[in-house]
Structures are given as C-alpha cells and as structure tokens.
Write a structure and sequence with these properties.
- It is built from one helix and twelve strands.
- By secondary structure, the chain is mainly beta.
- A six-stranded antiparallel beta sheet has the order 3-4-5-8-9-10, with no helix packed on it. A four-stranded antiparallel beta sheet has the order 7-6-12-11, with no helix packed on it.
- It is globular.
Length: 196
Amino acid sequence: MITQTIKPMRIVLLSAIVLTAFASCAEGGKSTDQANNKTIAADTTKKSIPSETKASVGEANMQINYHAPGVRGRNIWGGLVPYDEVWVTGAHKATALETDKDLVIGDVDVPAGKYALFTIPGREEWTVIINRNWDQHLADEYDEKDDLLRMKVKPVVREEVQERLKYEIRETGNNEGEIIISWEKLSVPFRVRVKG
C-alpha cells in the first residue's frame, strides 16, 4: 500500500522537474542583470541583425541603417571580409547613411540626402566610400562612377572584441563629429563636419 502511494508521488515530482526545465529552455538563453533587475536576451542568432544608429552633430540629424553580422568565432579580416575589395560594411543591403544637413567628409562636400557607405578594408589602411546609389544589394550593383567620395583612414586595434558590427555617430565639437565602425578587434573612425 505504501509502495502504491510513493509511485504516483515520484511521477508528479518528475513531471514538475521536466516542466521547470522546459520553461527554462523556453526562455531562449535569457539571463538577468541583477543590478538593473531586467532580463537580457543572449545574442545567439546566427543572422545579421537589422540595426540603426541616430545622432545629431551640430544641427545635422544623421542616421545609419545597416545589418550587423556577428563574429561567431570566424576569421574576419582577410577571411570572411577579404582585403582590398569593396565591402558593403554590413550584410544584405548596402549600409545607408542619411543626413538632413550638408556635411563635409574628408575634404568633400556631401549634400543633405541618403547615400550608401562602403569600405575597402586593407591591412594597414581602409578606404571609406560614400556612394550616391544607397538602395542596392550588397556590393553587387556597386559602381565606382557613383562615388561621391573616397578617403583613406587608419583602423584602430581594440582591446576587446566587438561581437556584432556596430556603427556610432559621436559629436566631438561645435558642428564636428565622427562616425566609428567597429567589429571584431578593429574600429575605423572618420571625421564629419556640418557645412556652414
């Protein structure tokens, strides 16, 4: 009689353990930030995430739309991203840079509007490209004749790995700022100025 009572209790207990484990798995790899008491989703997706960054430099409102691939343990520079070839500097569609005020990037005037931002990564220096054809797939439709500007910049080695490609727009002074492209252990900054 005692044996018959114990067996159902074991089944109930086992069921509770299975349900708890299932609920934990259903959370999708989330963890809790104890300091801020909020749930943070782990970055486990293999896809390139649609991303954007917005900021003002002086009176110019700027926005960059891009797809952010992850490192995922891969060899990035000279591997996944070849040296000395035009790169979409993201994934899928061309990275789009939009400004509502005229800018100066390098020594070139960039009128208010929307552009594609490409790069040519090199071992010692990169070429940043602003192209008039902002709506294109990867670099498949890229044509150098549509370039508004090309300029050389020096990459900076980072101490920590930036897992996902990231663009930042920072104001550095009166009507001056910089755009920073960071991925893996490199950052590529270049200056922008609001024309006026």
